């Protein structure tokens, strides 16, 4: 079976035996999208990149293999390579003002795009880029071999290009992006701002996007209850072992099919939570590109929404895939860029667990973001003397099943109105292990905790203080899950 569509290859190659695969990638796409904190400008930037991809998909005189999420691959005869590069550049700078793009190209023999690469020595690309190995290119994983070659060339191009931030002296900067010179005054509900022409276009596109998709007009609209006046929920999802899946792909058709399946699962999961929780005009999806998803949601429902979303996303396992998620809520006063970066930090925390695990499991890390001065992933000391040290961790990754077990425990506590007992326990763990044990025992006997967990020793060992190791021979380290459970109950509204 031919790696790329043979008919299409014939059409673009004409008499030439040499073909170029051109690929493009929008530089720092997320930084571009979150350049300004204005929600419409954010949604507009995202839409502008989508529209650019669609414009590339319509370049019918060439063979467009893929163009989605700000990256794409186009095949043309090599004598038109320069022309195609110029076309992509022109379209990009016209449609995505203020953005940057990298375009790279690699030439192949037509036969290699049909039957696979037999001799990798033809490609003088350093083998050490990003750990990509050019071994065993026997045409068996033919599509992924070509994919590796063009992505290593893309990385080489990216390392060469050094985007210069334009320097404008003595001009008023745009008050939204802070980069380009302001060119007009825009009337916002809460006052006038001097903005640049790029941001003006972003806002126009953002308004269109919000109307088309039924998104919230303002952050304040992302609200279902009193709590949502001060808090905003967020969920970020990222697929774990995509590289693994793609490295086994043999044809471009198979690539298209697999990425289509992933896209369908993600889209139907979004649709599901929007319907179940009645989120129309009460949510935003600033990033939704292929395998990457970032949603902003009513904080009061974010845990319940996550339950539904993650159960729907679990069907990824049928494709041999799993996901990592960053979950949380943030004070509404935080800049959106900061909320996004916190979600990113939580995702990498969850991904650390995914990489360390040998099972194809889903992972999550969560946090309540109330101040913009700290990393969402923290470890802190509750008590320390020469013999013992009590610590706690927040924002660390865990398996989804662990998360739901702990959530079920918090639910039991809540149903029995026993959350205050957690707070009482919290004051006990700021003491030496043995003393904490005595105090927790004492309070346990005088509470209704046996309705939730029968045995005080089990409660103590599982949640209050668990030995996690020792710093020296003499000094033991105990971890407390109590601050974590309190954080979870806070997140759950
Ligand atoms: Zn601007």
From TrEMBL:
It holds the Pfam family Cas10-Cmr2_palm2. The keyword Transit peptide does not apply. GO terms for molecular function: nucleotide binding. Keywords: Antiviral defense, Nucleotide-binding. Signal peptide: none annotated. GO terms for biological process: defense response to virus. Coiled coil: none annotated. InterPro entries: Cas10-Cmr2_palm2, GGDEF_dom, Rev_trsase/Diguanyl_cyclase. Residues 230-367 form the GGDEF domain. Gene3D superfamilies: 3.30.70.270. PROSITE patterns: GGDEF. This is GGDEF domain-containing protein.
């Amino acid at each position: 079976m031919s790696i790329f569509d043979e008919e299409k290859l014939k059409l673009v190659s004409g008499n030439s035996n040499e073909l170029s695969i051109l690929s493009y990638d929008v530089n720092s796409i997320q930084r571009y999208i979150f350049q300004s904190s204005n929600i419409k400008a954010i949604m507009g930037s995202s839409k502008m990149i989508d529209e650019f991809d669609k414009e590339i998909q319509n370049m019918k005189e060439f063979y467009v293999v893929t163009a989605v999420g700000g990256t794409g691959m186009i095949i043309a005869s090599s004598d038109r390579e320069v022309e195609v590069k110029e076309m992509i550049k022109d379209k990009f700078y016209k449609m995505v003002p203020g953005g940057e793009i990298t375009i790279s190209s690699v030439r192949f023999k037509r036969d290699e795009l049909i039957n696979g690469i037999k001799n990798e020595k033809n490609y003088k690309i350093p083998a050490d880029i990003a750990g990509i190995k050019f071994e065993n290119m026997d045409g068996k994983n033919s599509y992924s071999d070509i994919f590796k070659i063009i992505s290593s060339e893309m990385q080489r191009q990216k390392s060469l290009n050094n985007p210069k931030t334009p320097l404008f002296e003595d001009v008023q900067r745009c008050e939204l992006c802070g980069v380009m010179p302001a060119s007009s005054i825009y009337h916002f509900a809460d006052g006038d701002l001097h903005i640049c022409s790029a941001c003006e276009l972003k806002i126009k596109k953002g308004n269109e996007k919000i109307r088309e998709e039924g998104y919230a007009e303002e952050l304040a609209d992302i609200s279902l209850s009193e709590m949502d006046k001060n808090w905003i929920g967020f969920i970020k999802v990222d697929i774990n072992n995509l590289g693994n899946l793609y490295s086994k792909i043999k044809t471009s058709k198979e690539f298209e099919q697999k990425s289509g399946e992933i896209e369908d699962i993600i889209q139907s999961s979004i649709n599901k939570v929007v319907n179940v929780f009645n989120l129309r005009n009460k949510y935003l999806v600033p990033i939704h590109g292929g395998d990457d998803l970032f949603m902003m949601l009513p904080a009061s429902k974010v845990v319940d929404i996550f339950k539904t979303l993650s159960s729907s996303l679990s069907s990824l396992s049928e494709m041999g895939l799993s996901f990592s998620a960053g979950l949380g809520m943030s004070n509404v006063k935080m800049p959106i860029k900061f909320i996004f970066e916190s979600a990113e930090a939580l995702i990498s925390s969850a991904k650390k667990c995914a990489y360390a695990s040998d099972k194809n499991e889903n992972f999550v890390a969560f946090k309540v973001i109330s101040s913009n001065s700290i990393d969402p992933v923290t470890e802190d000391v509750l008590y320390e003397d020469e013999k013992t040290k009590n610590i706690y961790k927040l924002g660390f990754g865990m398996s989804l099943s662990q998360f739901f077990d702990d959530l079920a425990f918090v639910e039991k506590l809540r149903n029995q109105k026993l959350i205050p007992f957690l707070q009482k326990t919290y004051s006990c763990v700021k003491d030496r292990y043995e003393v904490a044990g005595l105090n927790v025992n004492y309070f346990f006997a005088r509470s209704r905790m046996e309705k939730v967990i029968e045995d005080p020793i089990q409660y103590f060992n599982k949640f209050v203080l668990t030995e996690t190791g020792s710093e020296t021979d003499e000094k033991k380290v105990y971890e407390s899950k109590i601050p974590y459970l309190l954080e979870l109950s806070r997140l759950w509204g």
